[in-house]
Every structure is written in C-alpha cells, then in structure tokens.
Design a protein that fits this description.
- Keywords: Membrane, Transmembrane, Transmembrane helix.
- The chain is an all-alpha fold.
- Helices cover 71% and strands 0% of the residues.
- The chain is rod-shaped.
Amino acid sequence: MSSQTTSGPQPAPLALNTHTTYASLVNADEDMIGHVAYALYKRDKLKFCDSIVALHQRPASASEVDVFIHSANLPTRVESYRTEAEQLLERFSEAVLDVTLRQLQDEMNRELVRQLKESKSFSKAVVENLVANMLAIAVTALFVLILYASRIGVVPLIGDIFGFDVKEKTAVVQPQS
C-alpha cells in the first residue's frame, strides 16, 4: 500500500476466515510455485490499492479490496498466477544453471590449462620414452648375455659375438731333459 496517509475512513479489515487466497494458491508447504504465485498476488493487490489512491486520492475501500480478492480467487486467475510463477521459477532455474555451467566450464578450463602447463611437451615425452625403452633393451640384452655366457663360457661367447672361432690354447708339455 502507498505510504501516503489520508484522513477519512480507513478500509475495514477483512475477516480472516473469509480470506482463502493463500490456500487457493499454495497447495503445500513445499509448493514453491504456489508461494511465488502468492507473492505475485500480493504484488497485484498492492498495485491495485496504489491505483485506487492514484485515481481517487483515497485508500481502497473494504468492498473494493474484497472485489479484488474475489477476482484473484477465481479458478482462471489462480491458474494464471500459478502459470506466471512457474514461468518465473523456470527462468530463474535456467539462469542459475547457466551461471553454474559457466562457472564449471571456467573451472575446468583453468584446470586443463594448469595440467597442460605442468605436463611435459610431446617431444620431451617421446625422448624420455625412447631412452627408457633403450635402457630396457640394454638391460635385457645384458641379462641374456650373462645367461648365455654362464652356459657356454665367456670365451665361446666372445667368439660368437664377433663371428670367429676361438680355440682354447692347449698347454704344450715340453719334455724334461
């Protein structure tokens, strides 16, 4: 209602048992659409009272407010308030989801950039893998050589590696004189 004070008769308060707008709009405590619809009804009621003051320079009479309340409780008007409330809540939910999605995308982008900065370059990773593989091959080859040498001996192994036939020297026994 307007903050202007006027002299003259004030509207009579409505009997509480005849005012069922809240119950018409809100089906349960968890009915968010109903609660928003009731807020929209209160907005329209205040606008109605302000328009009476603007048009007639007096507060709305009890009968004028009763007519507004009665019209606000008609099934089509109740449905209209609930539909408007549902649309407002959908737009609000979409806006919240859009903001949340943008925040998550920004956070993921920052995390990816951080991980990329911390990761190795492609060429460095290739070189490291090549060196590691060469070391693995060298260790395996050394192990095979040691195993082979233990079976045939070191001298024949050297001959096999370099491709020549190694003959062991036999000791020549010299006659004693």
